[in-house]
Amino acid sequence: MASVRCVDGALGFTGTIEGMAAVGTGDRQIPVQGNNLRNIIEGADLVMSHILHFYHLAALDYINTTNTPVDGQAPWSPKDNTADMIAGTLATALVLQYVTALDIRREAHRMGAYVSGKQPCTPALIPGGVTKTVPAGSTAAADMTTILTGIRSFIDNTYIPTVVVAAKALSGSLLVGSDAQGVGRGCKKYLAYGTFPTSSGTQVLTGGFANCTAAAVSAWTVAPLNPAFIEEHVTYSYYDPGTLNIYDKLHPSVGMTKPLFGKAGAYSWLKAPRYQTAAGSANTHVCEVGPLARMIVNTLAGVEPWASTVTNFITSTLGLPLTTGLANLPSVLGRHAARALECKGIADTMPSWIAALGTTTATGQSYKHRNIPTVSSTGYGLTEAPRGALGHWIRVDGSKVSNYQAVVPTTWNASPKDSYGQNGTIEQAIMGTALTDDATGRTKIGRIIRSFDPCIACAVHIVSGDKKTISKFEVIPNGFSSCK
């Protein structure tokens, strides 16, 4: 969904077209009805995406399916079993949840499609609002409420409890311990743009920058988001840095993307986004984005219901001291827990958005036309995709797009080293973890990387000149005969 969300996010998902209002676009805010519809559409997709990630993308790393109903069936494989995997009766229960979750994902998409036309690639989200309306006499609100009730029941009674079971079963290797033990802590700096705007101008999930590198949780800090601090480095990316590196460390609004495959020292098609709070390497921050970043930023900022939700989960559900739980949120299991808590929080908020559809008439305005600028103008849109902070920057000259730059969540998390030699977020998370060519080694690395829910297809696109050639790449670690 990130690629779909990108298109809308570029021109005002947050309700603004910064810098364009003065050249004929009119009201910077989308209509109230349109905002409610957008929140429902995006909320339905976020809920679907988080359930998808836990059950259908990550579960393979945690369940030994031997002697379960799917024993030996794809995508499960006995050769990938490890000693710390959940097995036996509990594994059978989790496999059944895996199947049930497929239906819940479908229901989430069905709910969103009532007001989007179709999910996940909805055509209804465009600059200015939502082109779909809720006609008089529609049963959409009642139908969505019924569907949402079933989804919330699954989250409360199945998803959340299962995350707790997994945390208790695997906390010895994936939650507690020093950074050197390969728990996937990462950079411990977090960035969020915020999303789900309200009619009062606030956000259900607020944005900010959190620095959690201090040993003591009491010394962790959070600051408001400043979009001007975002920049992209290309020293280790396959992009032309320009004469005297003029294309390096640029703000995305003036960014340049000129492929230069084979560039000396480069090893990634991703740029390296960074958050620079002041000049110099010491103030250039490698940041993690995504559900964990959003939960930490909102908890440290005291934003409700998130601060209470995280606190209660740690102290009541897990039975841990608050400082201990917070200190271990930067971890593999911490990311899964944050994703589950966010899924529940948004699902619990959605009834108010659905109910709000009735506060405006059935013909309430959901879309406001935006005029295309006829003179030079720039704009940007910031939002949160399920995977994390998403930003698009645009320049229009003579009614034509002259420059367009996107920085997607996986670019933040899976970036290469920056121009100061600082490793990217996922790189830092796996550093110090032993890589062995067996099930244990592969699973450990897989658990760490998949906890970020990376989507390389959303982060980089390569199109050949003939538009037909497809290249295949195989990464083989030194000394290994294959990489599976």
Uncertain spans:
1-27, 480-484
The CATH architecture category equals Orthogonal Bundle
Instruction: Count the beta strands.
Output: 13
Characterize the main sheet. Answer: 3 strands, antiparallel
Percent in helix: 25-40%
Shape: globular
> Structural class of the helix and strand makeup?
alpha+beta
Strand order of the largest sheet: 3-6-7
Provide the domain count: 1
CATH class: Mainly Alpha
What do you see in this structure?
The structure is a single chain. This protein is of the alpha+beta class and about 475 residues long. The protein is about 35% helix and about 10% strand. It has a three-stranded antiparallel beta sheet, with helices on one face. A three-stranded antiparallel beta sheet has the order 8-9-10, with no helix packed on it. Strands 11-12-13 form a three-stranded antiparallel beta sheet. A hairpin with a 5-residue loop joins strand 4 (about 195) and strand 5. Helix 2 (about 30-60) packs antiparallel against helix 8, helix 5 crosses helix 6 and helix 6 packs across helix 8. The radius of gyration is 23 Å and the shape is globular. About 45% of the residues are buried.
